[in-house]
Design brief:
InterPro entries: DNA_primase_C, DNA_primase_lsu_euk/arc, DNA_primase_lsu_PriL. Keywords: 4Fe-4S, DNA replication, Iron, Iron-sulfur, Metal-binding, Primosome. With 386 residues, the chain is α+β, with helices and mostly antiparallel strands. It folds into 3 domains: 128 residues, no CATH class; 86 residues, no CATH class; 140 residues, DNA Cyclobutane Dipyrimidine Photolyase, subunit A, domain 3 (Orthogonal Bundle), CATH 1.10.579. It is built from 18 helices and 6 strands. It has a 4-stranded antiparallel beta sheet. The longest helix has 21 residues. It binds iron/sulfur cluster. Iron/sulfur cluster binds next to helix 13, helix 17 and helix 18.
Length: 386
């Protein structure tokens, strides 16, 4: 594993300019047209990122420069077609790829990556130890000492745990050894935090890319057209929630603007890299299947969550959609029940009923009226609090 080039594994650690000087002039030649050397490679990466949230491991060449160029191309293409959700999907895929190599990396490499991605870390000379359950023999628990060999600054730790690891109780601060502003963790937790740091670092890197110029865009137009054609074929626009429909255009179908605040909150948490609770996930899935989403569409919504497992998620969504088990389609909780678990973000109740589906139906009606009589109805009243 150590023989694999560092930047093949972690292409986001290099700048595009480190690989190709004057990239905006050279990139169109490398990626822009079907005969360009990296055109097909980018499309094959795109498919895996969209369909499996993973990055192909092209071990045939271990060409780090190509990996860096492909990595940045996704950022530029997503910006060009205004698809922030594609950036998030790509960040999850690349950070997962990075995480898959951490197990076998030396401490030196891990600490270098930690520092480059903004984690403040120390390596204690005498790490604290904790007694953990190692398993059981004939029903009797076996314990072993475990060294907490990595010290992560409290600010880095809380920042990294605040998103997708929030629901994992093993990262609660109250379960950690904290001393003088440093949180001590074992290697397994450290590498998971590092994967999270890579995720945020990649998103920041993508966000920092300059908006592609018109000249550059025309140079890669064939690639953009191919990317859009592919995304259209997998109905990405609907799945990603970012295709903005005109108000009233889709009254009988899915209108994201009409979703009640509780559902919007869960979606926005997923979009920003958060990790909703099991109950929130259930409610989002139940809401979506009840307004006409297919199992595939619902899975696509959840695909960027940190612990997404295609097989388990598919089973659960099929169950909620009534395709398994009791064959009964589940509905989301009532507003009162959502309030009782802290999933309702507003003080009182939305207009339209005491259930997210009734509220959505009511909001859709407002959209329809607004489309029919644009002069007389004010859609901004949608979701107003009673
Ligand atoms: S009142 Fe009901 S529909 Fe509105 S945000 Fe709260 S739980 Fe959702």
């Amino acid at each position: 594993m150590s023989g694999i080039p560092l930047y093949w594994k972690y292409p986001f650690l290099l700048r595009l300019e480190d690989v190709i000087p004057n990239p905006y002039a050279v990139l169109p030649v490398l990626i822009g047209t079907p005969d360009a050397p990296l055109f097909e490679k980018i499309l094959s990466y795109l498919k895996l990122i969209v369909e499996k949230t993973s990055v192909p491991l092209d071990r045939s060449t271990y060409n780090s420069d190509h990996e860096v160029i492909v990595f940045y191309s996704f950022g530029l293409i997503s910006k060009a077609i205004k698809e922030p959700q594609l950036l998030t999907r790509s960040a999850v895929a690349y950070s997962k790829k990075a995480g898959s190599f951490f197990k076998t990396e030396s401490d030196e490499v891990l600490i270098d990556i930690a520092r480059r991605t903004g984690i403040k870390i120390i390596k204690p000379v005498q790490p604290p130890r904790v007694l953990r359950v190692a398993g059981s023999v004939k029903g009797k628990k076996q314990f072993e000492w475990e060294s907490l060999s990595y010290g992560v600054s409290l600010t880095s730790f809380t920042r990294l745990v605040a998103g997708r690891l929030e629901q994992d109780s093993s990262y609660n601060l109250s379960s950690q050894i904290v001393h003088e502003g440093v949180v001590y963790v074992d290697r397994k937790r450290f590498t998971r935090l590092l994967e999270e740091a890579c995720f945020h670092y990649i998103l920041k890197t993508y966000e920092g890319l300059q908006q592609p110029s018109a000249d550059f865009l025309s140079g890669i137009q064939p690639l953009i057209t191919e990317v859009e054609r592919y995304l259209e074929s997998v109905r990405w626009w609907r799945r990603s929630f970012v295709k903005e429909g005109r108000i009233g255009e889709e009254v009988s179908g899915v209108v994201e603007e009409a979703f009640p605040p509780c559902i919007k909150k869960i979606i926005s948490s997923i979009k920003s890299g958060g990790n909703p609770s099991h109950e929130e996930r259930f409610n989002l899935a139940a809401f979506l299947v009840n307004i006409g989403y297919s199992v595939e569409d619902v899975l696509a919504v959840f695909r960027t969550t940190a612990d997404f497992d295609e097989k388990i998620a598919r089973y659960q969504v099929e169950h909620i959609a009534g395709l398994r088990g009791s064959r009964r389609k589940y509905a989301p909780y009532s507003c009162d029940r959502l309030k009782s678990i802290g999933a309702c973000p507003i003080q009182n109740y939305c207009s339209g009923g005491r259930h997210p589906l009734s509220v959505y139906k009511h909001n859709l009606k407002l959209f329809k009226q607004s489309a029919d009589e644009p002069e007389t109805e004010n859609v901004s009243s949608m979701g107003k609090i009673q």
